[in-house]
Specification:
The protein is of the alpha/beta class. The protein has a single domain, classed as 3-Layer(aba) Sandwich (Rossmann fold). The chain has helices at about 5-10, 25-30, 45-55, 80-90, 100-105, 125-135, 160-170; strands at about 15-20, 35-40, 60-65, 95-100, 115-120, 140-145, 175, 185. The longest helix has 12 residues, at about 80-90.
Length: about 190
């Protein structure tokens, strides 16, 4: 029985389990689980990565983002400023900033080498699904596969991608935070 099941599941197995936590409280529980090596896909200015580093002492965090103009997401105009902010915020921590697209960078990681992954990159269905498919094997058994923005907005496909993956892989218990823009997760 996993930590989140023992701590939060009061639904008799119905998913998603509402954690009653905000995203900024989630990483405290990652720390309680002993998760010390993680990757965040889609880092932008490093705000969420900073939260992770602050709440998980001794965390080794791979921060993966292209930090460049991206024609499939032209709204990201200030990528150099975002990168500079991330560098500055994460300087005191064991955060390794990796410039590159997640589907290319993933091949630098061995299967089972991560305690968790947090997916917050391109929110279009194909990209979310691709990130889950490519990064899930990199997480060890008992680790966490997670991400951000489980709600319907603009042309985002996070909800559909997460739901499809969960159904296809018969994941029986998974979790949501109670933020306005919820995080989703399950234990591998």
């Amino acid at each position: 029985m996993n930590y989140f099941h023992k701590t939060f599941n009061k639904n008799n197995g119905e998913s998603p389990v509402q954690l009653g936590l905000k995203r900024n409280q989630l990483y405290h529980h990652f720390n309680n689980m002993g998760l010390k090596v993680g990757a965040e896909i889609g880092v932008a200015t490093g705000k969420n990565a900073l939260r992770m580093c602050e709440q998980i002492p001794d965390l080794k965090l791979f921060c993966i983002d292209p930090w460049e103009y991206y024609e499939k997401n032209p709204r990201v105009r200030h990528w150099q400023e975002n990168y500079d902010q991330a560098v500055e915020k994460l300087k005191p921590y064991n955060a390794i900033l990796v410039k590159g697209y997640s589907e290319e960078v993933v091949h630098n990681f061995e299967d089972g080498s991560l305690d968790f992954v947090y997916i917050d990159g391109n929110h279009m269905f194909d990209f979310v699904m691709q990130d889950i498919i490519l990064w899930a094997p990199k997480v060890r058994k008992g680790g966490i596969i997670s991400g951000h923005d489980y709600y319907n907005f603009r042309n985002a496909g996070v909800v559909d991608a997460v739901d499809a993956y969960i159904k296809a892989h018969k994941i029986e218990e998974w979790y949501l935070t109670s933020d306005k823009t919820p995080s989703w997760m399950w234990v591998k």
